[in-house]
Amino acid sequence: MITVEAHAKINLTLEVQGRRPDGFHEIVSVVQTVSLHDTVTIQTADELSISCDVEGLSPEDNLAFKAASLLRDRSDTTPGAHIEIEKRIPVAAGLGGGSADAAATLNGLNELWELGLPDDELERIAVGLGSDIPYLLRGGTAMLSGRGERVRSLPAADLPWIVLFTPDLTIENKTATMYSAVEPSDYTRGALTRKLDARIRGGGDVPPQFLFNVFDKVAKRAVPGLSDKWAMFESLGAREVHLTGSGPTMFSPVAQREFGTAMQLLLTHTHGQQAHLVSTWDPERGDRWTH
Length: 291
Known about the structure:
alpha+beta, Ribosomal Protein S5, domain 2, 2 domains
C-alpha cells in the first residue's frame, strides 16, 4: 500500500493570449502548489477500482480512475489496484483537485506496480488526461504555457500565508463555460507573467502588483453573485484578491498567520463559507509519500 498527498494549486498569474486552432486557448501562467491536499491511498487488488468520500463522483468521471486505466494500458501490464481518495480540496473550484488526484495516482501506481517509468513518460501520459496534470506530477512553483501542458520549474516562490475562499456558487460545465466567456478584448501578451517569472527567478519574492488572472474580470461578468462574495472577502481585510484558475475560488496573500486565521474563521463561522488558510508547498521541502 502507498499513500500520496495530492496538493492543490493556485494561479499567481493566468493570461489568455488567444484561441488556438485546436479550439483550446493559449495561456501563460505562474502556478504554485499549496499545503491543502487530498490524500490518495493505493493498494494492490485483483481489479482496478476507486472510491471517494465525496458523493456523486462516479468512477467513469473520476480523473484518477482514468489516469490509472491509461497508465495500465500504456505500460502493457494487467495489475489491479484499489484507489481511495480522501477529499479536502473543494471540487470544481479552480484549485486543480481532480488533476492533483490524477497526478498522485500516476506517481503512486508507477511505484506500486514497479513500472519504473521516467518523469517524461509519465508527463506524456498526463498530457492526454488534462492540462494541469503534467505540472501537478511534481508541483512547486512553475511557469506554464501552451494550453498549460508545457511546464518549466522555477525556484520556490517566497509567499506569505494565503487565505483561500471558495464561495458557494455553482457553475455548470465550469471550465468550458468560463473560457467561452473570454472575449478577444481580454487577451493579453503575457507581460505580467513574464515579469513575475523573472522576479521569482531573481529572488523569489511575489510583489502583489504582479498578480493577475484574466478571469477576475471575466467571472464577474459571467457568474451571478461573484461580485458580492468578492466584496465580502475584501470587507474582512483581504487586500489583494484574485481568482485561481477559472474560479470560483479566490485567494488573498496575508503577511501574518494570525491575520489569515482570523479571516478564515470569520468566513467559515460567521459567514458559513468554505475557506482555508494555507502555505506554499514545494516538493524540495519534503516527501509527499508514505508507505
